[in-house]
Amino acid sequence: xxxxxxxxxxxxQYPVRTVKRAEQALRCLPFQLPLFTAMGSRSxxxxxxxxxxxxxxxYIKRPLSELAVQGNLMWLIQVGILxxxxxxxxITDSFRLTPLGHQLVEKWANQxxxxxxxxxWDRCYNALNRRLxxxx
Length: 136
What we know:
The structure is a single chain. Helix content is 57%, strand content 12%. The chain is mainly alpha-helical. It has a single domain (3-131), classed as Winged helix-like DNA-binding domain superfamily/Winged helix DNA-binding domain (Arc Repressor Mutant, subunit A), CATH 1.10.10.10. Strands 1-3-2 form a 3-stranded antiparallel beta sheet. Helix 3 (33-41) packs across helix 7.
């Protein structure tokens, strides 16, 4: 991420509830911080995340199917962390961070470069939010 991107991401103020839900979603999913660090500077395709390829790149701890990865990425779009890439032909299978995603990744990169583990409460709250698909 360039300095300009970093400054513009930091200048947007989000409601505390939005940030909390986004943090919980990130921590409760099977992804690791290197995935989001990569998404901060370039788009990352679904195929690069799913299966053994994602494990080799340290994006996930264990292989996941493309369907499972896509479902989790779609949840991160709903909570405002990711956006889907679009080209001249339409929506692609690649994803990037939003300004909110940049803020969270920078925060955790500066605090040891690891996603904090979710608490039981975080997991329950995230599952409930995901089930209800409540609006931001």
